[in-house]
Amino acid sequence: MPQNTHEIWDSLKESLFYFILKEVKDEELSKDLLQEVFLKVHVKLDQLNSPDKAKAWAFQITRNQIAEHFRKTKDTVDLSVLSQVQISNDLEYEEINFCCFESFVNELPPKYGEVITLINIEGKKQLEAAEELNINLSNVKSRVYRAKEMLKQKFVECCQFDLDEDGLLVGEQDCIRCNSI
Questions:
Q1: 125 near 160, Cβ under 8 Å?
Q2: pLDDT at residue 135, rounded to an integer
Q3: pLDDT of residue 137
Q4: 98 and 167 belong to one structural domain
Q5: Non-local CB neighbours of 140 within 8 Å, separated by 6+ positions
Q6: What is the mean pLDDT of residues 119-136?
Q7: For residues 149-162, b (16+ Cβ closer than 10 Å) or e, as one string?
């Protein structure tokens, strides 16, 4: 596995670029963000404990960089898409405007909303969220699971999505809230 920034760049630059592009939908911005990611990879390379985990580590830095970009630009529509993609981990990236995502998260009971915000919006790892919330990791995992189930149900009820056999959102968005605005 990669041992230095150059090796990580050579092995991951293309997949990270397309990952960023799917999120931000802008080629030039994607190139800029990719450069920022690799600057952080270079600066934080000493924090990589295991070279065989370089890919996962670089993708986590990338997710954090994308989230940081959206926080800075307050681009809530794209942030909603980013968060929704992370909620349904295996769901193919789609260009869907999840107009209700933020309000759904805000409507969750606080203990579920805060864990989803920390992990899926701020990009923190579950262990980091557990430390920040001062709860154990199994409680964080349980809250994430329950919050995702509640959010899926809200998308089914409000936005008229269906759930497939794997429990993922499918179908066309026909949102009650967006259509009433």
A1: no
A2: 94
A3: 92
A4: yes
A5: 115, 119, 126, 127, 129, 130, 133
A6: 88
A7: ebbbebbeebbebe
